[in-house]
């Protein structure tokens, strides 16, 4: 089988990503180029993603990004063999932009389309790192919308071991951060604020830590953070939250919240490794960029002879490379059923 070129488009939420991946006969797919535009600055003023604004901005960005990627890879558009797009989950309007552009390209070039599950993109993203994993492995998927543990036996062979029953881990970071007056998206901001803080300064719940299964619950954490802020008299008080004399206390609260989330993620990951007997774990999704999570998971796994794999830091959050890669790996595994270009479908849920 000859090498094939896959163009991937991601537009499920607030990042527009485009990438070119080449499948190598008998080898791992290779990333030729990728480009990304983050809408974070645009949504920051609203404290969260505004779906309509997200869709409009994807429309503005996607073609210039595609041009950039093709130029960087020195590939002419007609050389592309397959066009992959994020099919879901995500914001319907935002997804439709990537799918619509993919479809237009497919019609114009007479090339097939492949819709990719956003989480499969995250899950497979460590295969683009310098230290790619081997199957089988446990996967901890931690993003703004999902928190799942999976057993992964190969491309397309995924078994759900456990997941959150309410908020996702990223949501727990973001909602706690918002209560503390930090900008959107709160995860990285809360993590930065937490540096040097005392992790035991505030009592916070570790829900379902001893539930005996591999499910998670994070909604109670946000409520507990809120309760602490009410007791301090700082809830919805931007001036109090920004006051320099209160900073040390907020640093402690951030450190305590982060420690609670990370402890649950690490303990459940270890339980999943124990249950499956596997000696390899992949961490993917935006929260996988969290430094404390990486430190604690690395430490715990080292002691147990477990290998931990991460995507490269810049591929932890949403990007087009993981979508092109997932499509390429599906294609190589003989799992892809590319669509004729005149039809496309998005699955927001
Ligand atoms: O995977 P992702 O980019 O988008 C989704 O598919 O949801 O993940 C975004 C999430 C957000 O909740 C963000 O706050 C969180 O990942 N995040 C972090 C860090 N970087 C991103 N959370 C904690 N620490 C970080 N360093
Ligand atoms: Zn994502």
From TrEMBL:
<keyword id="KW-0479">Metal-binding</keyword>
<feature type="domain" description="Gcp-like">
    <location>
        <begin position="31"/>
        <end position="324"/>
    </location>
</feature>
<dbReference type="GO" id="GO:0002949">
    <property type="term" value="P:tRNA threonylcarbamoyladenosine modification"/>
</dbReference>
<feature type="binding site">
    <location>
        <position position="290"/>
    </location>
    <ligand>
        <name>substrate</name>
    </ligand>
</feature>
<feature type="binding site">
    <location>
        <position position="122"/>
    </location>
    <ligand>
        <name>Fe cation</name>
    </ligand>
</feature>
<feature type="binding site">
    <location>
        <position position="118"/>
    </location>
    <ligand>
        <name>Fe cation</name>
    </ligand>
</feature>
<protein>
    <recommendedName>
        <fullName>tRNA N6-adenosine threonylcarbamoyltransferase</fullName>
        <ecNumber>2.3.1.234</ecNumber>
    </recommendedName>
</protein>
<dbReference type="InterPro" id="IPR000905">
    <property type="entry name" value="Gcp-like_dom"/>
</dbReference>
<dbReference type="GO" id="GO:0005506">
    <property type="term" value="F:iron ion binding"/>
</dbReference>
<comment type="function">
    <text>Required for the formation of a threonylcarbamoyl group on adenosine at position 37 (t(6)A37) in tRNAs that read codons beginning with adenine. Is involved in the transfer of the threonylcarbamoyl moiety of threonylcarbamoyl-AMP (TC-AMP) to the N6 group of A37, together with TsaE and TsaB. TsaD likely plays a direct catalytic role in this reaction.</text>
</comment>
<feature type="binding site">
    <location>
        <position position="174"/>
    </location>
    <ligand>
        <name>substrate</name>
    </ligand>
</feature>
<keyword id="KW-0808">Transferase</keyword>
<dbReference type="InterPro" id="IPR017861">
    <property type="entry name" value="KAE1/TsaD"/>
</dbReference>
<feature type="binding site">
    <location>
        <position position="187"/>
    </location>
    <ligand>
        <name>substrate</name>
    </ligand>
</feature>
<keyword id="KW-0819">tRNA processing</keyword>
<dbReference type="InterPro" id="IPR022450">
    <property type="entry name" value="TsaD"/>
</dbReference>
<comment type="similarity">
    <text>Belongs to the KAE1 / TsaD family.</text>
</comment>
<dbReference type="GO" id="GO:0005737">
    <property type="term" value="C:cytoplasm"/>
</dbReference>
<dbReference type="GO" id="GO:0061711">
    <property type="term" value="F:tRNA N(6)-L-threonylcarbamoyladenine synthase activity"/>
</dbReference>
<keyword id="KW-0963">Cytoplasm</keyword>
<keyword id="KW-0408">Iron</keyword>
<dbReference type="InterPro" id="IPR043129">
    <property type="entry name" value="ATPase_NBD"/>
</dbReference>
<feature type="binding site">
    <location>
        <begin position="141"/>
        <end position="145"/>
    </location>
    <ligand>
        <name>substrate</name>
    </ligand>
</feature>
<feature type="binding site">
    <location>
        <position position="318"/>
    </location>
    <ligand>
        <name>Fe cation</name>
    </ligand>
</feature>
<dbReference type="Pfam" id="PF00814">
    <property type="entry name" value="TsaD"/>
</dbReference>
<keyword id="KW-0012">Acyltransferase</keyword>
């Amino acid at each position: 089988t000859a090498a094939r070129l896959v163009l991937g488009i991601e537009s499920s939420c607030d990042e527009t990503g485009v990438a070119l991946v080449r499948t190598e006969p008998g080898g791992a797919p290779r990333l030729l180029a990728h480009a990304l535009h983050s809408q974070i600055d645009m949504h920051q003023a609203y404290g969260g993603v505004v779906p309509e604004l997200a869709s409009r901005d994807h429309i503005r960005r996607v073609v210039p990004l595609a041009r950039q990627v093709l130029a960087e890879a020195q590939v002419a558009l007609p050389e592309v063999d397959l066009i992959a797009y994020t099919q879901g989950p995500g914001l319907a309007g935002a997804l439709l932009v990537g799918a619509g552009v993919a479809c237009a390209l497919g019609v114009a070039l007479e090339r097939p389309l492949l819709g990719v599950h956003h989480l499969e993109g995250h899950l497979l993203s460590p295969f683009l790192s310098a230290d790619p994993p081997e199957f089988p492995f446990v996967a901890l998927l931690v993003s703004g919308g999902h928190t799942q543990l999976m057993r992964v036996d190969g491309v397309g062979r995924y078994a759900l071991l456990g997941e959150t029953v309410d908020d996702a881990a990223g949501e727990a970071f973001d909602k706690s951060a918002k209560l503390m007056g930090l900008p959107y998206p709160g995860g990285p901001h809360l993590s930065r604020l937490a540096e040097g803080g005392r992790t035991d300064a505030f009592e916070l719940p570790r829900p379902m830590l001893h539930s005996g299964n591999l499910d998670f619950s994070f909604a109670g954490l946000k409520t507990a953070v809120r309760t602490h802020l009410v007791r301090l008299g700082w809830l919805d008080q931007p001036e109090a939250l920004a006051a320099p004399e209160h900073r040390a206390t907020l640093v402690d609260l951030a450190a305590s919240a982060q420690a609670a989330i990370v402890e649950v993620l690490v303990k459940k990951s270890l339980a999943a490794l124990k249950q499956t007997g596997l000696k390899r774990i992949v961490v993917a999704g935006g929260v996988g960029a969290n430094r404390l999570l990486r430190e604690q998971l690395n430490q715990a796994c080292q002691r147990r002879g477990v290998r931990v794999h991460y995507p490269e830091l810049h591929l932890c959050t949403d990007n087009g490379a993981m979508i092109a890669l997932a499509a390429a790996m599906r294609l190589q595994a003989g799992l892809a059923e590319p669509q004729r270009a005149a039809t496309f479908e998005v699955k927001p849920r």
